[in-house]
Amino acid sequence: MGGAVSFLLMWLRAFSELGALLIVGNRPPTVGVYMFELFQSSGAETSVPYALIVATIGIAFSGLLYIISWRRG
């Protein structure tokens, strides 16, 4: 249950950061902005596979950092 709540809070925070970035940065070239514009133009069918790829890369990178820090500590 705690993992699901953490995931939801992480997603909500990332979404709010994207909104702030869009307001202040006026369409900066980031992955979040690209996926948001892809969703706006093409819908979920096109943007969800890219979002899953980015999420998989993020989870793999986080897991790698966790394993490295666990071995050293």
Distance between the termini: 27 Å
Helix content: over 70%
The total of helices stands at 3
Largest beta-sheet details: none
Shape category: elongated
Provide the β-strand percentage band: under 5%
List the quaternary state of the chains.
single chain
Structural class: mainly alpha
Mean pLDDT: 86
Query: Strand tally, please?
Result: 0
Low-confidence stretches: none
CA radius of gyration is 15 Å
SSE sequence, one letter per element: HHH
What's a concise summary of this model?
The chain has 73 residues and is mainly α. The protein is built from three helices and no strands.
Keywords:
mainly alpha, single chain, 0% strand
Describe the structure.
By secondary structure, this protein is an all-alpha fold. It is built from 3 helices and no strands. The protein has helices at residues 2-25, 31-42, 44-72. The protein is elongated. The model has no long low-confidence stretch (mean pLDDT 86).
What secondary-structure arrangement, pairings included, does this model have?
Blueprint: H1 2-25, H2 31-42, H3 44-72
Helix pairs in contact: 2-3
